[in-house]
Design a protein that fits this description.
2 helices; alpha+beta; about 100 residues; 3-stranded antiparallel beta sheet; single chain
Length: about 100
């Protein structure tokens, strides 16, 4: 078991530091800012997305990828759905990026 590391700064440098500890795979879990930052930097190769049939929101609610800027449909980042499965009343979508 490895002790917890707290790292901040440029994501490429953070991942290099993590790799120097012999880490080959990394699970990143976070909100819209974290997810958008990793996608924007091109540092994601697999996404596991859980979707519920529940709806909530209010003024100021952040979208799942609020920080990810896409100006046109042609500029959309595309992935390839590799599996979809039910998880209770929700679904899990695995996407290769």
């Amino acid at each position: 078991m490895r002790p917890c590391l707290e790292l901040s700064g440029d994501l490429s440098h953070v991942l290099d530091e993590i790799a120097s500890h012999d880490v080959l795979q990394l699970l990143v879990e976070g909100g819209p800012t974290t997810a958008s930052s990793f996608l924007e930097a091109g540092l994601v190769n697999h996404i596991v997305w859980y979707q519920s049939a529940s709806f909530a929101g209010s003024d100021g609610t952040l979208g799942a990828l609020k920080g990810l800027s896409t100006s046109t449909i042609a500029a959309l980042r595309r992935g390839r759905i590799v599996s979809v499965q039910g998880v209770g009343e929700d679904i899990r979508i695995d996407v290769e990026v």
